[in-house]
Design brief:
The chain is α+β, with helices and mostly antiparallel strands. It is built from eight helices and eleven strands. The chain has one domain.
Length: about 300
């Protein structure tokens, strides 16, 4: 692969500042949230078990003798991790004679000129951001049954949406997005919706619609922005659900992230190959997610 410079005109002099215009993309917010809350497993090569336990208590009157009632059920489910990579070959020579050629550092060593150049640093920053964006989407929308090159960033793992596909959707009524989200909140198990780590996950577009609806009702405040109006549950707008009208309500502790994290499976390399005079780029990472109790998730189309 080389740079496609057909859209550039020849140029000898470029005045500073010569920053490359790039579209801003978000970080992998859900991954950061799960790691910071301790809901993750590191060092997972391919698959790891999640141990589950269900138990109950039954009150009895004290007296002579005893009758044991109830069981503690132990079970497991597995979280699968996909080891992913991005490979690129880059030829910088085609930049000569263009505006971008002036972003290459000048020096006697061509390899150092490229590795130390402004354009290389910006390419790396841009691609790291794009990886974060893709990870955010695959965690929510990943589906291993998808086919075709357009789904190559989604068909490596089953994400949250696929794992709760068998859960019946909640029919929410209401004239506004605010009322529909409140109906979803009330449909959550009572033991879950009042917990500190309870969230409603929604697309950034639906979140903006929600804020506009609050403004229209003169209820816009910081409390109503971070949390669903009149409730204690927090809102989690994410680019991973952009393009979706489906929203999900569950506790953060009901989700678990997994990855390898070892040096051989995680990292970024850019080097010059004298075999073919090409700079080669390798990006390695891994990711997996599990909904531990899918039956506790509430979902709705709003």
């Amino acid at each position: 692969m080389a740079f496609d410079v057909t859209g550039l005109s020849d140029q000898v002099k470029l005045l500073e500042p010569y920053n490359i215009a790039t579209k801003a993309v978000s970080e992998a917010k859900i991954a950061q949230a799960l790691i910071s809350s301790g809901n993750f497993q590191a060092g997972v090569k391919n698959r790891a078990p999640i141990l589950k336990m269900a138990t109950d208590v039954v009150f009895q009157s004290q007296g002579c003798g005893r009758t044991a009632i109830g069981d503690t059920q132990l079970s497991e489910k597995f979280i699968d991790v996909a080891r992913l990579a991005v490979y690129k070959d880059i030829c910088y020579e085609v930049l000569e004679g263009t505006y971008y050629g002036q972003l290459l550092a000048k020096g006697d060593n061509p390899e150092e000129s490229v590795l130390d150049s402004a354009i290389t640093k910006q390419i790396i920053d841009k691609e790291v951001s794009l990886v974060n964006e893709a990870v955010e989407r695959i965690i929510f929308l990943g589906d291993k049954s998808l086919t075709g090159s357009t789904n190559s960033n989604l068909n490596k793992i089953d994400g949250i949406k696929k794992q709760v596909a068998s859960v019946s959707a909640t029919t929410v009524s209401g004239a506004t997005i605010v009322e529909k989200l409140q109906a979803l909140y009330m449909a959550m198990p009572e033991v879950d919706r009042l917990k500190e780590d309870a969230y409603i996950f929604l697309s950034e577009t639906v979140y903006e619609e929600y804020k506009l609806a609050l403004w229209g009702k003169d209820r816009y405040s910081q409390d109503g922005v971070d949390k669903l109006a009149a409730t204690a549950i927090k809102l989690f707008p994410t680019s991973g659900l952009n393009g979706q009208r489906e929203v999900y309500a569950t506790r953060l502790s009901n989700l678990q992230l997994a990855f390898d994290g070892s040096a051989e499976s995680t990292g970024f390399d850019l080097w010059y190959s004298k075999d073919d005079n090409i700079f080669k780029e390798n990006t390695f990472f891994s990711v997996g997610v599990s909904v531990i109790y899918p039956e506790d998730v509430r979902k709705a189309t709003v």
